[in-house]
Design brief:
Blueprint: H1 4-11, H2 15-23, H3 30-43, H4 49-56, E1 61-66, H5 72-87, E2 91-96, H6 101-113, E3 118-121, H7 130-137, E4 142-145, E5 155-159, H8 161-174, E6 180-183, H9 190-205, E7 215-216, H10 222-233, E8 241-244, H11 247-259, E9 269-272, E10 287-290, H12 293-308, E11 318-321, E12 324-326
Parallel strand pairs: 1-2, 1-3, 3-4, 4-5, 5-11, 6-7, 6-8, 8-9, 9-10
Antiparallel strand pairs: 10-12
Helix pairs in contact: 1-2, 1-3, 2-3, 5-12, 6-7, 8-9, 10-11
Length: 334
């Protein structure tokens, strides 16, 4: 493997000149730069970015950690975050932990060993003493996305979940629905709690009861949603509409209804949070909230860069990005 000494020998310059050319740490004439870069190509030399970070004490790499890369939301976030970081001159490392907090903390430790400049974390937010464990594990600038941890020392950028719940609930009420089922996710997850709270507040604010027999919790996996829908639709007074808060619930709901021979929206309307699924390719296409992941990624990158650059300290911020409702074909007026 070629070394910086090989480059210096081929270019007939000092190692100091090669280092200054590659790292931009000192002025080098154009003629010498051309000789150095030609020697780099001839030698097949590839700088070690980790070693360079250790020498210089700086890094241009950000670590992104998400619970599950298999979800369309996480894939979209990774793509948008990479674009946002690239625009400000940073690279990105990526890790996915299957929503396992122990793996999440190992990933944080690994990225820290690679001397990343900062972390963007979509936190698992469950497990005993999670907030305290996260606070102790993170020793670099960090921003949280998608979920909020009360009292945490990190900035957070997330969807405006209560606004999204209002948009969905008001739309169903406008269509004439009163018996609305809601699938609640894992307890203690801020996005799940905020979405249900927004739904319940909007129903009560419209003088509509929230039927306890139409609320199912915890439903955070596809098979749980499949079972919940079968229970809901076999009640004496089944719902006329079902609200899903994520893609796993939506997949299980549609499969459960299909298994029962029920049509959407003929027999029941279905509406979903988390618009990053192939809604337009389904039959029917699913009315869903569209999260502005591009704005979430951009704001997270901006906040992280402020922390990395040593801007004046300020209390942790929580930024909520408004979603929009995409009306398609899965809901009907009563």
């Amino acid at each position: 493997m070629a070394t910086i000494k090989d480059v210096a020998r081929i270019a007939n310059v000092s190692i100091t000149t090669v280092s200054a050319t590659l790292n931009g740490t000192a002025p080098v004439s154009k003629a010498l730069q051309e000789r150095v870069w030609a020697a780099v190509k001839e030698a097949g030399y590839h700088p070690d970015p980790i070693a360079r970070n250790l020498r210089m004490g700086v890094s241009k790499t950000i670590g992104l950690i998400v619970p599950d890369i298999a979800t369309p939301w996480a894939a979209h976030l990774a793509k948008a975050m990479q674009r946002a970081l690239s625009d400000i001159g940073y690279n990105m490392l990526f890790a996915s932990n299957d929503d396992d907090p122990d793996r999440e903390f190992r990933e944080i430790e690994l990225f820290s060993a690679h001397r990343v400049a900062g972390l963007v974390i979509a936190p698992t937010t469950h497990g005993e003493n999670y907030a305290e464990r996260l606070d102790a594990a993170v020793h670099t600038p960090a921003v949280l996305v998608d979920r909020v941890i009360p009292g945490a020392r990190f900035d957070s950028v997330t969807d405006d979940n209560r606004l999204g719940a209002q948009l969905i609930t008001r739309y169903l009420l406008k269509l004439g629905h009163r018996d609305i089922a809601f699938l609640v996710g894992r307890p203690g997850i801020s996005s799940s709690d905020e979405r249900f709270d927004g739904f319940a507040e909007t129903m009560r604010g419209s003088a509509m009861p929230v039927r306890d027999d139409l609320i199912r919790r915890p439903v955070h996996q596809r098979d749980q949603a499949f079972a919940a829908v079968q229970q809901l639709m076999t009640q004496p007074h089944p719902p006329t509409a079902i609200v899903c808060i994520n893609i796993a619930q939506l997949l299980g709901t549609m499969a459960g209804l299909h298994n029962m021979g029920l049509g959407v929206p003929e027999d029941v309307s279905v509406i979903s949070f988390d618009g990053f699924h192939p809604a337009e390719g389904w039959s029917p296409s699913i009315t869903a909230l569209s999260q502005d992941v591009t704005s979430i990624s951009t704001r997270a990158a901006e906040l992280l860069l402020q922390r990395i650059s040593g801007a004046p300290e300020h209390p942790p911020q929580i930024i909520r990005v408004p979603p929009s409702l995409q009306v398609r074909d899965s809901c009907r007026a009563l």
